Amino acid sequence: MTLQWTAVAFFLYAEIAVNLILCIPFISAKRWRLVFSLRIWNWLSPYWNKCFFTMIMVLVVLFLDAVREVQKYSGPEPMQDAKVNPNVYDHIHMKLFRAQRNLYISGFSLFLWLIMRRVVTLLDQVAATLEDRSDLQARMDDGVKIAKQQQDDNLMLKQALLDEKKAMSAENQQLKLEAEKLAKHMKAAEEAVSRSRVELEAMKRQAKGLAQEYDRLLKEHHQLQNLQSAADKKDQ
Predict the structure, then answer these.
(1) For residue 80, what pLDDT band results from cuts at 50, 70 and 90?
(2) What angle, 0 to 180 degrees and rounded to 10, lies between the N-to-C axes of helices 76-84 and 86-235?
(3) Average pLDDT for residues 73-93, to the nearest whole number?
(4) CA distance 79 to 34
(5) Are 9 and 105 in contact (CB under 8 A)?
(6) At what angle do helices 86-235 and 39-73 cross, to 10 degrees?
(7) pLDDT at 43 > cutoff 80
(8) Which of 166, 2, 131 is nearest to 69 (CA)?
(9) Mean pLDDT of the chain
(10) What is the arithmetic mean of pLDDT over 105-132?
């Protein structure tokens, strides 16, 4: 195996190991996000896309080269030469095996490279979704607490209004009773005033009668005095 394909094989093994580590079930997405948030990744983030696309280009070139080698050693011309010379047949099959091996190595490396990026992206999205869900759950819990508190406040307010209504009803009942008493007193006072007016009118009529009787008696007295004076003059 040449140096380049040895490097690609080690790169494939590294990708397999990284993907297996990323798929470990007991490591949560939040922990992976903490790992991805380290300063070293922030420092490498400007070069990450360039490195990613560069590796894709290298792996695609190697994959196409492996495809070309497979087609080269699986064509009709090498097989015709192999039929002529048995040693050439073994050599061609060895070359074809190596070309197929290189094809698989480069193809799986390219595939796992894309898978690894996708897994990292999904882990980051899952962690962000879990954090958003945690924040949303906390907000929902706060909303439930606030709603419960408001419900309790409403119940207390309703109870206070009910008590106040009862108190106002009792006070209104008492005021009603007092108003009825005052109405009775006013009615008694009006009746007393009416009686006083009737008595006053009677007293006025009586006083008027007495005055008329006094005037009549006074006239009679004057008449009697005049008669007596006339009789005295006659006697003289």
Answers:
(1) low
(2) 150
(3) 62
(4) 57
(5) yes
(6) 140
(7) no
(8) 2
(9) 80
(10) 85
Where do the domains of the chain lie? 3-161
Q: Check: pTM over 0.85? Answer yes or no.
A: no
Measured between alpha carbons, how far is 230 from 101 in angstroms, rounded to an integer? 184
8 Å CB contact between 57 and 50: no
Reference 56, options 23, 20, 17, 15; nearest CA is 15
- Please compute the mean of the pLDDT values over residues 51-75 and round it to a whole number: 85
Give me the mean pLDDT over the 3-9 stretch: 85
pLDDT of 57: 92
Amino acid at 116: M
Q: Which residue type, as a one-letter code, is found at position 229? A: S
Q: pLDDT at residue 42 above 70?
A: no
DSSP the chain: --HHHHHHHHHHHHHHHHHHHHT-TTS-HHHHHHHHTSHHHHHHHHHHHHHHHHHHHHHHHHHHHHHHHHHHHTSHHHHHHHHH-HHHHHHHHHHHHHHHHHHHHHHHHHHHHHHHHHHHHHHHHHHHHHHHHHHHHHHHHHHHHHHHHHHHHHHHHHHHHHHHHHHHHHHHHHHHHHHHHHHHHHHHHHHHHHHHHHHHHHHHHHHHHHHHHHHHHHHHHHHHHHHHHHHHHHH-
